[in-house]
Design brief:
seven-stranded antiparallel beta sheet; D-amino Acid Aminotransferase, Chain A, domain 1; globular; nine-stranded mixed beta sheet; D-amino Acid Aminotransferase, Chain A, domain 2; alpha+beta; 16 strands; 2 domains
Length: 295
């Protein structure tokens, strides 16, 4: 459950209980998916807690709203302050945080001129749980970047994520892997993808993917440890000849893939570069000093 009877959320400048919050059924968000959101985590540490990459997340929220002709009613600094108060009011240190900018009442296809904002937080384990998830190649593709802004974390984009995840679950898999309109590897339904090829990592280049904040952190961590990371276009034959695969994202954190369709990755997760970086990531986000230092 994402809330209890005592939970508090922030909605349009007020602190309310989730059951008391209301949104118009004529919101453009409800009908056309016009919203921008973020997924953020707070981690407990020896000094209390730290909201991981809070500034980067809220800057991306602002950028997404600009791309969709929406407006965030708060500055990045104000959003961080609201986030801190949200955690305090709900007695949370380890938490998943969901800020959302939504459109006001507006039934035409012109952009709305009024916007609302909410922020909620709850305790949430890693999205995929333990490592060793089973993945299938989806029959769906990621949207063409010429049809929508792939850099924007927009609510409407996630219809694609929901239907591809459902397809995978119905076929006995945990997650879906999607290619783009040119049949280059894109991302999982809700995470970025890395492949291990020998002693290096390869990952899809930006353009047809969400440029994830966890993705950027993993690249920085890898390079700080002397691991080569190549951002490039990848075909299915590149994927199914990899030594190992793992997914990364705020909700998923770092999770290893054991099987893709019929292909079993030959390097066991515990011996992979992904496992090494996953351990480093887990240590980083739970430390008081979250700077990445080269080793």
């Amino acid at each position: 459950m994402y809330y209890t009877a005592d939970s508090q959320i922030f909605v349009d400048g007020k602190w309310v209980k989730p059951a008391e919050a209301t949104v118009s059924l004529f919101s453009q968000t409800m009908h056309y998916g016009m919203s921008i959101f973020e997924g953020i985590r707070s981690y407990a540490n020896p000094d209390g807690h730290t909201i991981f990459k809070a500034k980067e997340h809220y800057e991306r929220l602002h950028e997404g709203c600009e791309l969709l002709y929406m407006k965030v009613p708060y500055t990045v600094e104000e959003l961080i302050a609201i986030n801190e108060e949200l955690l305090e009011r709900n007695g949370l240190t380890n938490a998943y945080v969901r800020p959302l900018v939504y459109s006001g009442e507006h039934m035409s296809l012109n952009p709305s001129t009024t916007f609302g904002f909410m922020m909620a937080a709850w305790e949430w384990d890693k999205y995929h749980g333990n490592n060793g998830i089973r993945v299938m190649t989806s029959s769906f593709e990621r949207p063409n970047p010429k049809s929508i802004h792939m850099r924007a974390k927009a609510g409407g984009h996630y219809v694609n994520s929901v239907i591809s995840t459902r397809e995978a679950k119905l076929k006995g898999f945990d997650e879906a892997l999607l290619y783009d309109h040119d049949r280059y590897l894109a991302e999982a339904s809700s995470a970025n993808v890395f492949l291990q090829k020998g002693d290096m990592l390869v990952t899809p280049q930006v353009g047809n993917i969400l440029p994830g904040i966890t993705r950027a952190t993993i690249i920085e961590l890898a390079r700080s440890q002397g691991i080569e990371v190549i951002e490039t276009r990848l075909r299915e034959e590149d994927v199914k000849s990899a030594d190992s695969m793992f997914f990364v994202g705020t909700a998923a954190e770092v999770v290893g893939v054991s099987l893709l369709d019929e292909y079993e990755f030959p390097v066991k997760w515990e011996n992979s570069i992904g496992a090494k970086l996953g351990a480093a990531y887990s240590k980083l986000v739970r430390s008081s000093d979250q700077r990445i230092v080269a080793v």
